[in-house]
Amino acid sequence: MTEREMLEKRLKELKNRLETVKGEKCEIWTRVMGYHRPVSEFNKGKKSEFKERVYFEENVALKRL
Predict the structure, then answer these.
(1) If residue 48 lies in a helix (H) or strand (E), which one and from where to where?
(2) For the segment 3-14, what is each residue's pLDDT rounded down to a tens digit?
(3) How large is the greatest C-alpha to C-alpha distance in the chain, in angstroms?
(4) Structure pTM?
(5) How many structural domains compose the chain?
(6) Residue 32: pLDDT above 80?
(7) Within its chain, how far is the Cα of 26 from the centroid?
């Protein structure tokens, strides 16, 4: 068996394993007005604002100097 065939076989095995992975719902919290709240409790408008947030990235900011 060639190295490529072995890698393809391994990839197929991993893809099959990945299909059986079961996860748990993850609760996302964020800071709003000085306190922390779960995003799941936001109203429709606040959820929309949360999705539109732009997060600070130092590398991007430094490039703009």
Answers:
(1) helix 44-52
(2) 999 999 999 999
(3) 61
(4) 0.46
(5) 1
(6) no
(7) 10
**50's tokens:** 């949360």
Cα–Cα distance, 14 to 5 (Å, whole number): 14
DSSP states of 5-26 as a string? HHHHHHHHHHHHHHHT------
Nearest one of 13, 40, 43 to 29, comparing CA atoms = 40
| Domain interval for residue 45 | 3-63
- Degrees, nearest 5: CA angle 14-20-23: 110
The CA–CA distances, whole Å, from 50 to 21, 58, 61 equal 29, 20, 21
User: From the centroid of its chain, how far is CA 21?
Assistant: 17
Q: Is the dihedral of CA 39, 45, 51, 54 positive or negative?
A: negative
Asked whether 39 and 29 are in contact (CB, 8 A), the reply is: yes
